[in-house]
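Data deposition worksheet. Section B asks for the primary sequence of the deposited chain exactly as it was used as input, without tags or linkers unless they were present during the calculation. Section C holds the resulting structure in token form. Section D is free text for depositor observations; keep each observation to a single sentence. Incomplete worksheets are returned to the depositor.
Section A, Depositor: J.P.
Section B:
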Amino acid sequence: TFVGVTSGLAMGAIAACGSEEQKQRWLPAMARLEKIGAFALTEPHVGSDAAHIRTTAKRVDGGYLLNGEKRWIGNATFADVIVVWAQDEETGRVGGFLVEKGTPGYQATKIEGKIAKRSVINADIKLNNVFVPEANRLPLARSFRDTANILKNTRYGVAWEAVGHAQAAYELALEYTTQREQFGRPIAGFQLVQQKLVQMLGDLTAIQLMAWRLSKLRDENESQITEGMASLAKQYCAAKARQIVALGREVLGGNGILLDRHIARHFADIEAVYTYEGTNEINTLVVGREITGIAAFV
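Section C:
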């Protein structure tokens, strides 16, 4: 998640929508992890309906004043540059703004009490008359469509993240069933356990192949990956991974809820993967819009 935020989202936004000067200033240092990025889109009252964010950008002498709130922003408490998405008061369109670390009026507070991705530092952000110079506005971020193009690439990455959780759960479950004995034999020798393992492997193989195929297409020509293709991979892989991990935890029985068996960590984290970078429902509707030509969001 840390790498995805700083390289996929923050660097992706600057690479796709930034000026040459902005790219030269930030991207080489970020690629070396000398500078860390964050990507501030989600808000306390605006999640799935991200096209209607409430954070505003007001044009003033020499730049813009940003006001509003953001939520669930990874890296935001320590990032060197935060890509903040706000609605331009003049045009009504969503634009991107580079807020640098230490800018007055910017406050980020770590979110506590999470059951998933506990090592990831997410934050609530408050923006109170944060001044962003004109040079820090992303010139090619002209509408939410530009924002969506960046999310397309990160959803591809989250599909692989889901595959990783699923593969770990399968391997942990298989190892456990060959070692755990009940009724005088390893539980791997019971038909109902084998049925669960086979279902896990079948679904795992399917999502591995989907993510791999999308990667091959991306390597050949990144522009041929559509928003619907990326959303389908994220939606399908995350949903299947969630089922695989649940079956793996089930195979371990009571031991499946213990941290030292590790599968409980995947069981918690897959809930976050299933939800972020577009919920299951939103990604479903993105795919539905692409294959039918009809938007069913409202």
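Section D:
The mean pLDDT is 94.
The radius of gyration is 21 Å.
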